[in-house]
Amino acid sequence: MKFDTLQQGISFYENYAKVSGFDTRLYSTKKRKSDGKISLKYCVYNKEGFRETPRLQLNCKKKRPITRMGCNVRITLKLIND
Hints:
This protein has about 80 residues and is an alpha+beta fold. The protein contains 1 helix and 3 strands, in the order H-E-E-E. The protein has a 3-stranded antiparallel sheet, with helices on one face.
């Protein structure tokens, strides 16, 4: 699909996720070196990937449940100059 702006693509995916019954989060952004504009953006399923340090190993007063499950659902939005 093509969108006029990256924000329209993000909105589309968030609406799709809501209708389908899952949540999303913005994962990563890449900028062009030439002009600093955002050229690539990743939106992922909120349970995508794993945390770097398991929370069980940290010395925390409040233990939080592990929320990431390793699912690789994502969409890549790329800015294309026409």
